[in-house]
Design a protein that fits this description.
6-stranded mixed sheet, 7 helices, globular
């Protein structure tokens, strides 16, 4: 079974929650994908690491990360999957104490080629915040990867914010919940 098929199977088995829920965007949905339930288990974590590492290498990335918490397990999976670069986490706001950094982890330098990571994309708002934080620091973004795209328009918003860098969803809601009632 391919890494992508293993990831879909793990998301379907462990992450799909049926029932009304309010999303980060404030929208209400009849299902939820709690990707961390699948990607923080060995099979999902290993499949994710393989997929993210492959894509990041193809783009010539030297650093992977995104807005904390969604990107945290994805970046760690990439490192565990053999990505030979840096991982970073973007805070929603810079800390008011310590080093007052917004981007945590090894220092990103001029020349680093960054891939933005996200677990689940709905409207793309969290991913866009991470993109903007790196752009404010003058970092080059070479791509964006999500574990799952809910196909709610976030992909288009991310692509626009990323300044031409490609956006890839490793899976979509069509893969994980094809029989959902709101499928268009």
């Amino acid at each position: 079974m391919s890494a992508q098929a293993r990831l879909v199977d793990e998301l379907r088995t462990h992450a799909l929650v049926l029932g009304e829920v309010v999303l980060t965007s404030g929208l209400t949905a009849q299902y939820y994908v709690d990707a961390k339930r699948a990607i923080l288990l060995p099979v999902g974590f290993l499949a994710l690491g393989e997929l993210v590492t492959h894509r990041a290498r193809a783009w010539g990335a030297t650093a992977v990360g995104g807005l904390t918490m969604g990107a945290d397990p994805v970046a760690c999976a990439a490192l565990a999957g053999g990505f030979d670069g840096k991982a970073f986490f973007v805070r929603k706001e810079a800390k008011a104490h310590g080093l007052a950094r917004r981007v945590e982890g090894p220092l990103l330098e001029d020349g680093d080629r960054c891939v933005i990571l996200e677990d689940v994309v709905s409207t793309g708002g969290s991913t866009v915040k991470a993109i903007e934080a790196l752009q404010e620091e003058g970092r080059e973004i070479v791509g964006v990867i999500s574990v799952l795209d809910r196909l709610a328009g976030g992909g288009e918003r991310i692509t626009a914010a990323a300044g031409g860098a490609p956006y890839v969803a490793l899976t979509t809601i069509d893969d994980v919940y094809p029989e959902r009632p709101d499928r268009t």
